[in-house]
Design a protein that fits this description.
Elements lengths: L2 H20 L4 H18 L14 E2 L7 H5 L10 E7 L3 E6 L5 E10 L5 E3 L7 E8 L2 E4 L6 E6 L4 E9 L2 E9 L5 E9 L2 H4 L5 E9 L6 H6 L2 E6 L4 E3 L6 E5 L4 E7 L3 E19 L8 E9 L7 E9 L2 H7 L13 H18 L5 H44 L4 H15 L7 H17 L24 E2 L10 E2 L1 H21 L4 H17 L4 H24 L2 H13 L9 H24 L1
Antiparallel strand pairs: 1-2, 2-3, 3-4, 4-5, 6-7, 6-12, 8-9, 9-10, 10-11, 11-19, 12-18, 13-14, 13-16, 15-17, 16-17, 17-18, 17-19, 20-21
Length: about 600
């Protein structure tokens, strides 16, 4: 190739490349051409194109591309349409129903707000699905992908019917109904003329999943109390793990309802005829702003008329409200396990509900509740204080025994202590047992307050919301600990507990390691409770303050000199006349046997 040929080819390439970039259409021109081609395809299919996709605030237009093969397939005409949102509401709920899938597109609870004052919407948008899967004419059908037609939109009367057409005489109706008030939404799934298409033996499988929005201040705590709950026909309520991702299949029992439970609100699907088979799952996407993604795959059973009667509950996790719905929905509220649940259910909750009738601030209600509890437990508190006072009076004599026996033989030392206790008529466990009897109640409150819906959004003093933590100061997450704040009420509770420990050591006469162990627990609990509800820390703070008051009054009633005189009188009584407690006698016998075994060990070695 000579120089002239090379130059010519080079110029041709430059012209071609330059033409490509200079004559390239803009993005707007490309979009216009695509819209023009799309409109032409719709006209050829006999479908009128939409001029403005944003003509209505409550509609999302999605023109479809149709060919004759699609139109001839089962429910083919329903594959093309535009998504429109229809509002159905009552005094308490505002629902938006989508023509795409005929599903509940969003749920707003009108009487509640999020922690930052925004409208409280449980879920909305395309990340939520509610569709039935079945076979029709050998094809897999998912109603969530098909367009429904509103045939009866009597929203003022609380009824809307969404129809999925197969033919003019064959269709599936979703009939939504709401009462004038309340949190329930009726949903009647009614197939008409489709027995030959779907088949009577063909199971109807519902795929329901939702990505639930963050509604509370503390995302971590909200995730901790949110998961999938379910109720079977034996009236047993169970749930998936709230602490990790989990999936579960239930095939041996029918389920009456499945609940996507959040901390303070729930979305529950109820089947009057039961779900035959159920596959449930919960997933946490830590990168998402939503709390969790919950899924339910449910096989439905038709009633005698061939319809599928369902019902939703979209509402608060308030014990009385859930209880009024029936079907044990209130069992979603975590009141603790075993005896803790019964204490909260049949003791604490009734008293709390009674105090609510006076319309006091919830800070005052917690104060009165704490006072009543302390009055009920005051006999145990008095007995515990009296036992610790006796041990304090005995301490000089115990020190003498310790100096005489020495610390090299702990078994013999404990025997001598037990002998002294028996002579003085003192039970060394008398101060511990009353405290142990109070522990279930203390722990029951630990589960009661975080689950108490009534505290949500209620303020008291500087605490803006008793259902979550109060922030004295906020900061970037601390390494390892992960703290982002310091709770003032938790700090006050911890300080009061340390002071209580100090005075308790003075009463009991604790020394050595036992004297300092009591100071470690409050610091550990501070780390645990720093992110717990301010209402719970407020209760523990009040309990400490009232304990100080109780001990002050008890101290006026208990005289150490009289206790010492009584102990000396007990020691003068004949041994045979003294009572021996069953536990004390067994403990003393065990120590005696242990001492005998230790005495035999040197002989065995020899």
């Amino acid at each position: 190739m000579d120089r002239n040929q090379f130059t010519g080819l080079f110029l041709i390439m430059v012209i071609m490349v330059g033409s490509f970039f200079l004559l390239k259409p803009s993005q707007d021109e490309i979009k216009k051409e695509q819209m023009r081609a799309h409109a032409d395809s719709l006209r050829r299919a006999g479908i009128k194109p939409v001029a403005n996709a944003n003509a209505k605030a409550d509609s999302v237009k999605k023109p479809g591309v149709v060919d004759s093969a699609v139109l001839k397939s089962p429910f083919g005409a329903a594959t093309v349409g535009s998504e429109q949102l229809i509002t159905l509401e009552n005094k308490d709920l505002k629902l938006k129903l989508s023509t795409l899938g005929g599903r509940v597109y969003s749920v707003e609870l009108k009487n509640f707000k999020t922690f930052d004052g925004k409208p409280l919407i449980l879920f909305d948008g395309a990340n939520n699905n509610f569709g039935f899967k079945f076979k029709a004419a050998g094809k897999n059908i998912n109603t969530d992908e098909l367009y429904f037609t509103p045939t009866s939109t009597q929203a003022a009367n609380g009824t809307i019917t969404m129809r999925l057409n197969y033919s003019p005489t064959q269709y599936i109706d979703y009939i939504y109904t709401v009462a004038a008030q309340g949190y329930k939404v009726g949903l009647q799934i009614k197939p008409t003329g489709l027995d030959n298409v779907i088949g009577t033996a063909n199971p109807l499988v519902l795929n329901w999943d939702a990505s639930l929005h963050k509604l509370e201040k503390d995302l971590k705590a909200e995730r901790q109390y949110s998961t999938v709950y379910f109720h079977n026909t034996d009236r047993d309520v169970d749930y998936l793990s709230p602490a990790k991702d989990e999936a579960k299949s239930i095939n041996d029992k029918k389920l009456n309802w499945v609940s996507f439970k959040q901390h303070f609100f729930s979305s529950v699907l109820i089947s009057k005829s039961g779900f035959e088979k159920s596959n449930l799952a919960v997933n946490t996407d830590v990168a998402s702003a939503d709390i969790k993604q919950m899924k339910a795959n449910l096989t439905l059973t038709a009633d005698g008329s061939g319809a599928y009667p369902l019902e939703f509950y979209f509402g608060p996790n308030k014990f009385k409200t859930l209880q009024d719905q029936g079907l044990d929905l209130e069992k979603q509220i975590d009141l603790g396990w075993g005896p803790l649940k019964w204490i909260n259910r049949f003791a604490v909750l009734p008293v709390f509900n009674f105090l609510q009738q006076f319309n006091w601030n919830y800070g005052i209600i917690i104060l009165v509740l704490t006072i009543l509890l302390k009055l009920v437990l005051s006999p145990l508190t008095y007995k515990s204080y009296l036992s610790m006072a006796k041990m304090r009076v005995l301490k000089p004599e115990m020190d003498e025994i310790k100096a005489k026996v020495g610390e090299d033989n702990p078994t013999l030392l404990q025997q001598e202590y037990m002998k002294l206790y028996r002579q003085a008529g003192v039970n060394p466990l008398g101060g511990c047992l009353p405290l142990l009897l109070q522990m279930p109640i203390v722990i029951a409150f630990f589960r009661f307050f975080p689950s108490l819906f009534e505290l949500r959004g209620q303020s008291f003093l500087w605490m803006h919301d008793l259902s979550t933590y109060d922030s004295l100061i906020s900061f970037a997450p601390l390494p390892l600990l992960g703290w982002t704040h310091i709770s003032l009420m938790c700090l006050l509770m911890t300080i009061s507990t340390l002071i209580y420990t100090y005075f308790n050591n003075q009463i009991s006469g604790a020394t050595g390691q036992m004297k300092y162990i009591g100071y470690i627990s409050p610091l550990i609990f501070f780390g645990m409770l720093n992110s717990y509800p301010a209402g719970l820390n407020y209760y523990y703070f009040l309990a400490n303050m009232l304990t100080f008051a109780q001990q002050f009054f008890i101290r006026q009633m208990v005289d150490d000199k009289k206790i010492h005189a009584q102990i000396q009188d007990n020691k003068k009584k004949p041994e045979t006349k003294k009572k021996k407690g069953g536990f004390g006698a067994k403990l003393e016998e065990m120590m005696r046997q242990q001492q005998a075994m230790q005495a035999q060990q040197p002989n065995k070695k020899k």
